[in-house]
Amino acid sequence: MIHVGVLGATGYAGLELTRILLQHPEVGRLSASSVSFEGKSLEDVYPSMVNLQNDTALPALEKAEDVIAAADVVFSCLPHGHAEEAGHQCVSAAKPFIDISADFRFGAHEETFKKWYGAAYKYPELHAQAVYGLPELHREAIQSAALIANPGCYPTSAELGLMPALQEGIAELASIVVTSMSGVTGAGREPNQTTHYPEAADAASPYKVGSHRHQPEIDLLLSEMAGAPVRSVFTPVLAPMNRGIVSTICFRLARPLSAADLHSLYRGRYAGEPFVRVLPLGSTASSRFVKFSNYCDISVHLSADGERAVVISTIDNMVKGAAGQAVQNMNILLGFEETEGLRFIPPAF
Fold first, then answer.
1. Suppose 166 and one of 103, 224, 226, 228 were both cysteines; which one would form an S-S bond, judging by CB atoms 3.0 to 4.6 Å apart?
2. 56 has a pLDDT exceeding 50
3. Residue 84 is part of which domain span?
4. Helices 153-167 and 135-142: crossing angle, nearest 10°?
């Protein structure tokens, strides 16, 4: 049984992570920090945690340094720009560190990170050894990682939706267009006008068109998969729902394929993957059927002229797009069953 620490436990991702870890059979103790609510209990902040007192019961929310000192493995749900120092402390103490922010996702590409997130690296050598934690792509590297950069929610959906096509060379790289609808929890717990209910309800609102900072993360990984530079067109859309991402991905086929061929290619690539479900041909993926789960559902289609593929990739942005994938990475790293603590069946409604 392990002692896990969660930094920034009172944000949406931190709460979801804590919810999952409290039910994980290999977690014997959990410590958590919060700058905003230090000294309070998690149930003071989120009443849904009331009466969860058991062997993994949470103590009062602590200082980050105390959580790091006590834990065997540390998760960071801190805002972008605040995880680097915690990562340095954990790696120096030989404690595995799994970061849900963007701080380590760009590896050695410091200039790209600086351009999109406005900060330089304090510990460049730490970034160089970080493993991008998309299990379906980097499972072997995750097994021996000291520091894991958990992928972003939009990138997870886009990357899983495109991986088979890029690895098999069936997509024209200059033709990739990704349009992703996301629930408002993707914006975090801190309220703002855009996510205020009267502003977000009853409307689908594209935002940061051509300038969203997940764009370079998506292209970096797509380029790795393709073995050549990829410059996609990515458009995020805020949808009037709490959670979920639906990515519609279009690309021109590099060679003629039938719908059955395309489906067979995707089914073959994800055969044996515990959390990617390629739906039967003729079905269409929906965020409804991945809600509260660690699944990514994918459906494949052809355009009417048969020259372009349309792939629908759906995830729960709080689970496979954040906390669930982080726990999946922990399971791989520590040698647990990869699905341990993550066997959630999505609700039907």
1. 226
2. no
3. 2-129
4. 90
Per DSSP, what are the bridge partners of residue 328? none
CATH number, position 34:
3.40.50.720
- Find the catalytic residue in 77, 90, 153, 296: 153
Query: For the chain, what percent of residues have pLDDT higher than 90?
Result: 80
Give residue 274's Cα distance to chain centre. 16
235-256 pLDDT, tens digit per residue, is: 999 998 889 999 999 999 999 9
CA 66 to chain centre: 26
Domain assignment of residue 176, yes or no: yes
Domain membership flag for residue 46: yes
3-class secondary structure, 2: strand
d(CA 9, CA 245): 22
Buried b (16+ CB within 10 A) or exposed e, 222-247: bbbbbeeebebebbbbbbebebbbbb
**pLDDT, tens only, 70-117:** 999 999 999 888 999 999 999 999 999 999 999 999 999 999 999 999
CA distance linking residue 147 with residue 142, whole number of Å: 9
The CATH number covering residue 214 comes to 3.30.360.10
pTM (2 d.p.): 0.94
Residue 11 lies in a domain: yes
Residue 273 DSSP one-character state: -
pLDDT-derived band at 222, boundaries 50, 70, 90: very high
250 is catalytic: no
